[in-house]
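TEACHING EXERCISE
Course module: macromolecular assemblies
Task: Read the component lines below, then compare them to the predicted structure of the full complex.
Student: A.B.
Group: 4
Components provided:
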Amino acid sequence: MNINATLLGQTIMFIMFVWFCMKFVWPPIMSALSERKKQIADGLAAGERGKHELELASRRATESMHEAKQKAAEVIAQAEKRASQIMEEAKNAAREEGDRLVAGAKAEIDQEVNRARETLRQQVADLAVAGAEKILRREVDAKAHAEILTALKNEI
Amino acid sequence: MSGETLTSAEYIKHHLQNLTYGKLPDGSWGLAHSAEEAKEMGFWAINLDTTIIAFLLGAVLMFVFARAARKATVGVPGGLQNFVEWIVDFIDNSVRGSFTAKNELVAPLALTIFAWILLMNLMDLVPIDYLPFVAHAAGLPFLKVVPSTDPNATFGMSIAVFILVVYYSIKIKGFGGFIGELTLQPFGKWGLPANLFLEGVNLIAKPVSLALRLFGNMYAGEMIFILIALLPFYVQWTLSLPWAIFHILIVTLQAFIFMTLTIVYLDMAHHEH
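Instructor-supplied answer key:
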């Protein structure tokens, strides 16, 4: 328990160890620690950023889905409108065509009727003329009474 | 017990005597074989046990730490690196907590103090007779295992700390500032002698209290182990086990206190007050 030169030895030894620690132990460990701390912080920040981006993307996705839905609804509405329009047009066209056809047919029928009537009239007139000829074989000169006959024919 | 031939008093004395190497009364150099011989060697003698054990512990410590530091990776740390990082982080937090100036030296200093003192203190938990018994078998007259129960070791460290405190006081505040702090407060320049006395005591008390606190605690702990070892061997464990468990607390606490106070003293040296 005496104070002796051990005191000096211990002081020197202590200073030596502190120097060694300061030179070779503390800096590498601290740098590794702080580097890792930085990496962890970076990782956390990146994670946070990723989360934020995910949120943004999902919001964007919802938005675009909404937009697409709206557009689709618009398109469908337009298509429906167009379809009904086309249907209307087709209906109109069909009606017109029908009318036209009916009118054509009617005209044809009229024409046919007229033609038949004409023919009939002609035949009746011819028949009448033939009858009259037969009756008036002698007295009637076809040439002399052609005027009267034509008038008669027209009257029929 | 180291021998039936010893009385209790002799056993205790034997355990408290360092293995001292110095100049013997007959003029030759050698190991002291009694406390009186050791005392007569005067200042120029050396406690081999304290020196060698302290050096071995410090060297092992520095070797392990340097190994961990050399292999330190930024990635996932291995077992040793993890352990060393845990200690370093703990020290770093302590230093950041109580040291506000910027100084590259303080944190490694704190680490060395804490780890080295802790290891020296932990030698107390080695059963009290093991190493002295081995030493006795090897022909050494004495062996005091715990370096921190030798005031030379504790004063050695506290004097180094004291030198640092004075050095940084002068470096930061200038020689005039340091002298001014010693002489001009708390009573102003007319109370100079009183100031010098108070501040001088204050300054000297730092290393003395630092060294004596550690020495006293470890010496007392060691003493109680020695006293327990005087009991019959079949009852020793009933006392030595609880004391050893309690002593783990003291061992750590004293290392921590020495470190914290060193940090605080150096912090004070860096600030005007």
